[in-house]
Amino acid sequence: MxxxxxxxxCLVDKQQGRLLKFTDEEKKTAYMKEVTKIIGESEDEASSxxxxxxxxxxxxxxxxxxxxxxxxxxxxxxxxxAMEDELYEKILTAEDSLAQALVxxxxxxxxxxxxxxxxxxxxxxxxxxxxxxxxxxxEIYESFLKDCGEGKRFLLLADNCGEIxxxxxxxxxxxxxxxxxxxxxxxxxxxxLNDATMEDAEEVGICDVAxxxxxxxxxxGTVESMLxxxxxxxxxxxxxxxSKGQANFETLNGxxxxxxxxxxxxxxxxxxxxxxxKNTGMFLREKELTN
Length: 291
Description:
The protein is of the alpha/beta class. The chain has helices spanning about 5-20, 25-40, 50-65, 70-90, 95-105, 120-125, 140-150, 165-175, 200-205, 230-235, 245-250, 270-275, 285-290, and strands at about 155, 180-185, 210-215, 240-245, 260-265, 280-285. Strands 3-2-1-4-5-6 form a 6-stranded mixed beta sheet, with helices on both faces. α2 runs antiparallel to α3 (about 50-65), α4 packs antiparallel against α5 and α5 (about 95-105) runs antiparallel to α8. The mean pLDDT is about 95.
C-alpha cells in the first residue's frame, strides 16, 4: 500500500508523542529531523510499518531502549486464553463454525497498541456482540472456501498478542473443514509493539495446532524483501494466505498474491478508505483489490 498524506501526518504525530517524556529539546528536534528525512527520502512503495522500523533504529540511538510490551502481551494472551473455552463453544454451535471462527479471529485484531491510542477490554468484548461489524462478505468467503478446498498449503500471517489465541481457534476449524491443508503460521521475528512472536505462539498453544515460523525481522508487517529464507519460501509456496491486521495489509497490498485480508478498521484512513465506521471488520481479497 502506497504511503499517503494522512499516514505521513499520523507517523509524525506518533513519533512526536513518543518524545513527551523527554526534556532535552535539542535531542528531540534532532530526532524529529531524522524522522522527516526518512519519510522524505522513502521510496514511493514504502509502507508505514517499514518506516516505523527505520524510526526505531534511530530512536534507539537517541533515547535508548524501545518501550517494552512484554507485560502487556502476557496480560492479553492470558485474558483471551481465559475466554477460549466459552468462545470455542459458540463457534462449535454456530451455523457455520468456520465462518464464526473467522469473525472471532478478526475481532481479535482490535488488540493493537500500535494503531490505537487506547485498547479497552470493554470495547473488545462489545465487538463480539456487534452484528453490524461482524459481517463476512459472502462472495469473498465463498472464494476463500473454494481456494482452501483446491489448495494444498495455507499460510496465516499473524498480527497481535491475544489475537493469536483466536487465530488458533480458526485454525482448528479450518483443519476440520479442510484436513488436506498443510497449515503454517508466521509470527514476527523480533519484538515489535504487542505483535505476536514465537514466544507468544508457544504461550497460547498455537504451535500445537499448526507449524509456526518466524518472519526473521522486526517490522510490524510483512515486507517480502526482509523475510528469512524459510519465511520467504513459505510465502512463495502458499496457495492461500490469510493476512491478519492493518500492518500486514499495508505491507502486502498490491503484491498480487492469493491473499485474503482480515482486519478491523482502527484508524481514520482505513475507515475512510473502506467507508465504514471505526472497528468495522473487513474481509478482502488481494485479486479484487488489484484489478
